[in-house]
Structures are given as structure tokens and as C-alpha cells.
């Protein structure tokens, strides 16, 4: 008998019919002799709708009240799923984050889990009940509801799996596993049977939307095995774990992210401490900086560029407008039409020539590189957003990641995909 934590995303519980299907799946797991704990996200686009309601009331809603509002989405889906399980003749009980013992720090909207008190969940399992836990939320030391940020239900599931010492944490979504890249962008992408924590963490951080990076980070720290799989089929998905049985490839996968922007500060005096002033001010204003590029100084003047999430752009602009006179820079410009394309693979550490092959491939395809960032197992480049699809596809082919079959759902051209990505920024 296995102890399984099964997390279902918003698409999986988007309608009463889909909730009933999830209930059937959970009951089937029980009937196969396993114990199971469910973790659920809010139904469909509920979170977006709640955000819209808040913004219609207040342009700058208090973060504490936003957490209380957004937490209701998961509470709706958890109770409906518990009801659906009961309708199938199986006992179920729903739990909010607080009731499930998810303790967090006091950072509203992006809290971090500090402790999992598993007593109530283990008691429910011992009594033959299927616990259904609201993902995405917890409670801080003051008793206030907190939320874990977008994708936070993944982190809830991994934390619960660790807290009850589950054999596996199954993350169900509308995709059937982790691919070498987004198959909607590169139709010859391959589904991976296994992937290491390090590779998955880099892919998630670089823009792969399959799993929340914090969930993978938590799983790696506490050695929780994740199984990423589809809620709409019984097929095996991808296992994320410490050791894999696969032969180590040079490149495991390619991720892309069109949500970042590039800010360039022009005419910056090349003096000691100027960069420190710029990035200290950005940090103080909660701007998350990704890549940093500084040009070679000419006549004591240089340019400094950095990338940051598009969600941080307004704070970045406010910061630069304030600090520009202090550092005697000429101006700053913003480029929103960029994309970050990242090659990830632990095999890069022992395989020289990855950067050379990547740059040569991009050059042969007339794709200009705007910025470069590296780590021992990741190489990221910034390119024009319009060339994202072309960059992913040519690199995917150059590093031998193409499969012989074609992902059948992909009917869009490269230009149509690029247009959709730009629209969704």
C-alpha cells in the first residue's frame, strides 16, 4: 500500500463534471489499496476573476485583504470535491490551509512555508477518510491567512507529502509530463520519463510552466518524489527525483520566457559605486533583477542593462526615474519585446562547446543575441520576442532533442505562436 498526495490544478477542477472525474480518480486510487490525500487549486480562472473584482474596488488593494479574498477560490473547489467523493460512497473531509497545519511566514501574496503540522491529516487518513486540502494558502504566526504566490498549490502538495512522509507527490494538470521543450512551440519535443531536481528547477526558473520552481526546490531539499502527469489520462508522466536511470544528456531541455523586459540605462558615468546605487535602489523597491549587462567604458561613460519580470516593470520605471539624476545618467529605455531562451542540462558541466554550438546555431539562423547569462547547468540568451519560436526550434534540433514523431495538437505556425505569446504577456 502506498501513501499518495495527489494535486489537481485549476483546469482539472474547472467544472462540476471535471470535479466528478477527479473524485472518481481519487476513489479508484483508494480502491487499489492506497491511501490518498488530495490538494486542489481554484476552479479554472477563479483566481483571475477574484483579482479583477479586487481591482474594480481598489486600484491598490491591501495585501492582507487580497490573501483573504484569493484563498476563497481553493476553499470552493475543496468543498465541492469532498462532496463529489462522498457522492461516490467514500468518506471525505475538506481542510483549509490553516486546518491542514500549513504554517507560513507573514509575507502576504508570496508567503513561504515554515512548518507543516500533519496531525489532523494523519488522523483523517487513519479513520478511512480522503482529506481534501486547499492549496496555495496557509496561516502565519498572527493567525492571518497567507497565500504562496501563483502556482503555490504545487508547493502545498509537496509540503504535505513531506509532512506525512508520502511515497510520491502526484501533480495532475492538463499536460502529461515534462517535455524537452514546450511541444506547442517545437512539435518534435519529447516527453521525459525522468528528470533530476536540478534540471527541473532550472527549467522551471527559466520559464517552463509545468511546475512551480519553489515546489521543485522544496522537493529537492526534502527528497520528495514528484510525478508530473495528466489529469485526463492514465498514462505515466515524468518523475522528478534525485537520481535518474537515464543516461545523462548534454542538454535535458529548453525553456523560454516572454514575460521579462529589458531596461537599459544610457550615459552612465563609469565611477565606483554607481552600479551598487542602481541595483540597491531596485532591490529596495522589490524589483527582481535577472540578467545584468554592462558595456565597456568609453571616455568614462558606459551603459548598464538589466532584465526583470514584466510584473515588476512599473516599480523599475519608478526607481529609474528617481535615481537617474543621482547617478548623472543620460536616460533609460525599456524594451518589452524580448524573450529569454534557456538551455538546461547537468551534462553541460562535463561537455565543453555547448555555448559555441548554441551561438553558432543562432547566428546561422540570423537570430541576434541581446544578452547572455550562464550557470554550471544553464545557458540563457535574450532575443527579440518575434524570434522566440525560431530560436527554440533551431536549438532543439541542434542539440539532438527532436523526436521522430510530431506533437499532433500543434496546428499553429511559428508566426501565429509568436503572436499569441506576445498577446499573453
Description:
The chain is of the alpha/beta class and 425 residues long. Helix content is 35%, strand content 24%. The chain is built from 12 helices and 20 strands. It has helices at 16-31, 46-57, 63-87, 119-126, 152-163, 197-205, 213-222, 274-284, 313-327, 354-364, 388-398, 414-423, and strands spanning 3-8, 35-40, 92-95, 102-104, 113-116, 130-134, 137-139, 145-147, 168-173, 194-196, 226-230, 238-241, 253-257, 260-269, 292-294, 301-309, 331-335, 338-344, 371-375, 378-384. Strands 3-6-2-1-9-11-12-10 form an 8-stranded mixed sheet, sandwiched between helices. A 4-stranded antiparallel sheet has the order 13-18-20-19, with helices on both faces. It has a 4-stranded antiparallel sheet with strand order 15-16-14-17, with helices on one face. A hairpin with a 5-residue loop joins strand 7 (137-139) and strand 8 (145-147). Helix 2 (46-57) packs antiparallel against helix 3, helix 6 (197-205) runs antiparallel to helix 7 and helix 8 runs antiparallel to helix 9. The longest helix has 25 residues, at 63-87. It is globular, with a radius of gyration of 23 Å. The model has no long low-confidence stretch (mean pLDDT 92).
Amino acid at each position: 500500500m502506498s501513501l499518495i498526495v495527489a494535486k489537481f490544478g485549476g483546469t482539472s477542477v474547472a467544472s462540476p463534471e471535471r470535479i466528478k472525474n477527479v473524485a472518481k480518480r481519487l476513489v479508484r486510487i483508494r480502491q487499489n489499496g492506497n491511501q490518498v490525500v488530495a490538494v486542489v487549486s481554484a476552479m479554472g480562472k477563479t483566481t483571475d476573476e477574484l483579482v479583477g473584482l479586487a481591482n474594480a474596488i481598489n486600484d491598490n488593494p491591501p495585501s492582507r485583504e487580497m490573501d483573504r479574498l484569493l484563498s476563497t477560490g481553493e476553499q470552493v473547489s475543496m468543498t465541492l470535491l469532498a462532496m463529489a467523493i462522498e457522492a461516490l460512497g467514500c468518506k471525505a473531509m475538506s481542510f483549509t490551509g490553516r486546518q491542514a497545519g500549513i504554517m507560513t511566514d507573514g509575507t502576504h501574496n508570496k508567503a513561504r512555508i515554515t512548518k507543516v503540522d500533519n496531525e489532523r491529516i494523519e488522523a483523517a487518513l487513519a479513520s478511512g477518510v480522503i482529506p481534501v486540502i486547499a492549496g496555495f494558502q496557509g496561516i502565519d504566526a498572527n493567525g492571518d491567512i497567507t497565500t504562496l504566490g501563483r502556482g503555490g498549490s504545487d508547493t502545498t502538495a509537496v509540503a504535505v507529502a513531506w509532512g506525512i512522509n508520502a511515497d510520491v507527490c502526484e501533480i495532475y494538470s492538463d499536460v502529461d509530463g515534462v517535455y524537452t521543450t514546450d511541444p506547442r512551440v517545437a512539435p518534435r519535443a519529447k516527453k521525459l520519463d525522468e528528470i533530476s531536481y536540478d534540471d527541473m528547477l532550472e527549467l522551471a526558473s527559466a520559464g517552463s510552466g509545468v511546475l512551480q520552481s519553489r515546489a521543485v526546490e522544496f522537493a529537492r531539499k526534502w527528497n520528495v518524489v514528484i510525478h508530473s502527469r495528466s489529469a485526463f489520462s492514465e498514462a505515466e508522466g515524468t518523475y522528478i527525483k534525485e537520481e535518474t536511470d537515464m543516461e545523462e544528456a548534454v542538454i535535458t531541455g529548453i525553456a523560454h520566457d516572454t514575460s521579462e523586459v529589458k531596461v537599459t540605462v544610457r550615459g552612465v558615468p563609469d565611477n565606483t559605486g554607481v552600479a551598487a546605487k542602481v541595483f540597491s535602489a531596485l532591490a529596495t523597491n522589490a524589483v527582481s533583477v535577472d540578467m545584468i549587462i554592462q558595456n565597456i567604458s568609453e571616455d568614462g561613460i558606459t551603459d548598464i542593462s538589466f532584465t526583470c519580470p514584466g510584473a515588476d516593470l512599473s516599480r523599475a520605471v519608478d526607481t529609474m526615474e528617481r535615481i537617474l539624476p543621482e547617478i548623472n545618467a543620460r536616460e533609460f529605455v525599456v524594451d518589452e519585446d524580448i524573450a529569454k531562451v534557456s538551455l538546461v542540462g547537468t551534462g553541460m558541466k562535463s561537455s565543453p562547446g555547448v555555448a559555441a554550438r548554441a551561438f553558432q546555431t543562432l547566428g546561422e539562423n540570423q537570430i541576434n543575441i541581446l544578452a547572455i547569462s550562464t550557470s554550471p547547468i544553464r545557458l540563457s540568451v535574450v532575443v527579440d520576442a518575434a524570434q522566440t519560436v525560431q530560436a527554440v526550434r533551431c536549438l532543439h534540433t541542434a542539440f539532438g532533442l527532436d523526436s521522430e514523431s510530431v506533437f499532433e495538437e500543434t496546428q499553429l505556425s511559428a508566426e501565429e505562436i509568436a503572436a499569441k505569446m506576445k498577446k499573453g504577456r
